[in-house]
Amino acid sequence: MTQVSERLAEVRGRIAAAAVPAGRDPAAITLVGVSKRQPLDRVREGLAAGLTDFGENFVQEGVERIQALGPGNARWHFIGQLQSNKTRDVARWFDWVHSIDRLKIARRLSEQRSWHAEPLEICIQVRLVDDPGRGGCPAEAVPELAAGVAELAGLRLRGLMAVPEAHADPSRQRAAFARVRHLAEGLKEAGFALDTLSMGMSGDLESAVAEGATILRIGTAVFGPRPAPR
Ligand SMILES: *Cc1c(COP(=O)(O)O)cnc(C)c1O
C-alpha cells in the first residue's frame, strides 16, 4: 500500500502546480491532514513525514489523537459539526475551529477557553448548499455572526471556511470558492482583519488554490481511503 509520506509528497506537488499559475507562493498555503476515521498509525506516519496540522471531525476521536500524538507536536483543527455539549473538550484541546456557524457555540468556546491559552483561532463556516443539515451559516448572516465572534476574548476570528457541493465540472467548483472569497473581501472592506480561507479538499484543491485558499483540508489524498464508519 502507498505510504502516507508518498501521498503527502504527491499532494504537495499538486499544491505547487496549482499555486504557480495563480501567482501564489505554495509555502503560504497550509496543508491540514484530515485524519477522521483513519487508523492512528497513519496519523503518526503523517506526523513523522512532516505534517504540522491535523483536522478532526469528531470530538472524542480528535481528543484521543491529540493525547496520543501530543498536543504540542502539531496544530489541531476541529472541522466537524459541533454540538454545544461538546464545546468544553474542543476549547481545551484544539488550536483552531473551522466550523463556527452560530454565536451560541462561539460564546461557549470563548468562555471555556483557558485564560492561559492562546485564543482559539476561528473560521466561520459558510453554507453554500441550501441544506441546513450540512451545517454552516447562510452567506447573508455571516457579517452579523462575524461581528459577534470578533467581540469574544477567548476567540480570534481568522476567516471563512466552506465545503461546496462536489461538481465534476471544475469551473462550477471554482465559482463556489469564488463566492467565499468575495464574501471574505467584503468583510475585510468592512474592517475585519481576516487572513484565512479554509477551502479545498482532496478532489478540488486546485480550484481552491486558484481562488485564494490559505488552508486546504485534505483527507484521503494524504492518508488513503477511509475505513467504513463503525
Ligand atoms: C472529510 C473532510 C475533509 C477531507 O475530505 P477528503 O475528500 O478526504 O480530502 C475536509 N473537510 C471537511 C469538513 C471534511 O469533513
Please summarize what this structure is:
With 230 residues, the protein is an alpha/beta fold.
How is this structure best described in words?
The chain is built from 9 helices and 9 strands. The model has no long low-confidence stretch (mean pLDDT 95). The protein is globular. It is 40% helix and 19% strand. Strand 3 (75-78), helix 4 (87-93) and strand 4 (96-100) form a beta-alpha-beta unit. It binds pyridoxal-5'-phosphate. Residues 34, 36, 57, 79, 163, 201-203, 217-221 line the site of pyridoxal-5'-phosphate.
Annotation keywords:
230 residues; alpha/beta; nine-stranded parallel beta sheet
List the helices and strands and how they pair.
Blueprint: H1 4-19, E1 30-34, H2 40-48, E2 53-56, H3 59-69, E3 75-78, H4 87-93, E4 96-100, H5 103-112, E5 120-127, E6 137-138, H6 142-150, E7 155-162, H7 170-189, E8 196-198, H8 205-210, E9 215-218, H9 220-223
Parallel strand pairs: 1-2, 1-9, 2-3, 3-4, 4-5, 5-6, 5-7, 7-8
Helix pairs in contact: 4-5
Each distinct ligand = pyridoxal-5'-phosphate
**Low-confidence sequence ranges:** none
Termini separation comes to 22 Å
Rg over alpha carbons: 17 Å
Q: Could you spell the SSE succession in H and E letters?
A: HEHEHEHEHEEHEHEHEH
**How much is the average pLDDT?**
95
Q: Determine the structural class based on helices, strands and strand pairing.
A: alpha/beta
**Percent helix:** 40-55%
Shape: globular
Major sheet summary line: 9 strands, parallel
The strand count comes to 9
**Percentage of residues in DSSP E strands:** 15-25%
Number of helices: 9
